[in-house]
Amino acid sequence: MEEILSQNEIDALLSAITSGEMDAEQLKKEEKEKKVRAYDFKRALRFSKDQIRSISRIHENYARLLTTFFTTQLRTYVNISVTSVDQVPYEEFVRSIPRLTVLNIYSVAPLDGKLIVEINPNIAYALIERILGGKGTASNKNSSFTEIEKLLLTQLFEKGVYCLAEAWNSIAEIDPVLEDFEENPQFIQMVAPNETVVVVSLTTTVGESSGVINICIPHVILEPIIPKLSEHYWMQSHQNTRDDEAYHLLSKQVQEAEVLITSILGNANITIDEFLKLKKGDVIALNTAIDDPLTLIINNQPKYYVQPGKHKNKMSVQILDEMIRGE
């Protein structure tokens, strides 16, 4: 894409050439010289920007689902959002995370390989404290997690695997299973050090603590579904198509839903003194004329004008007209 100069930049350039601060011949020479850009073959980019955007969309949905799950489980303020999606060598990912952290390793059958969810220790300790009834403040503890702490975290993330499955459902039906729990990233050798992985970073706030959750997805997992990560596939898969079976099932459930219907005969205003003196046989005059239609209320919402009557010896109302909102 060519760079377009503003009028001020053009004037400054002409002024510099006129005053001799800049040599026009030197500019031409520099323009003719070939510009060389360094390319690191160890950091091969296997995913296009389009595919990275698709992965970002998937995990934005995952972040929303995980936010809801944690909020329900911990009963505290939780906010999770996607910060960045990068493709880096696996070795670089390992070097970027703390030596003492939480590493959940998931299998994602039927796809090959395993993905890693790394939880920053600040978030991990906040989760543990909330599970045990605390405020969710981060701890400066530098020692390894106890067996009880590991068990609590494992149980929490085992319950939350459905969030990952639901988020990925738009491109692949996976069955994520928490296979292992590790603390030291040096003990995990998922793929070759120079293998490309996609790292999704989620900024996470739990109670009074904040940190990052990183999701490491090796290329071997995404390789079979790369065609589904294209913009074209997303446009096709999100067209307005109706599942007839689901539509009929939903219609049947809606038809069987029960609603509360009330017909108001009229209203009247009386004093407390009059109310206390009411006795059998007293008559209360309503503010509705005998030939005025009544209001039919469905689940506390006025919906129809009706008239009272009898149907098969039962008190009934007949619908006259639908109420227009605002009347």
From TrEMBL:
InterPro entries assigned to the protein according to its UniProt record, in alphabetical order: CheC-like_sf (IPR028976), Flag_FliM (IPR001689), FliN-like_C (IPR001543), SpoA-like_sf (IPR036429)
NCBIfam families: fliM_switch
Main location: other
Domain Flagellar motor switch protein FliN-like C-terminal residues, every copy: 253-321
One Pfam family from the record: FliM
Recorded superkingdom: Bacteria
Species this protein is from: Oceanobacillus caeni
Topology within the bilayer: Peripheral membrane protein
Protein name: Flagellar motor switch protein FliM
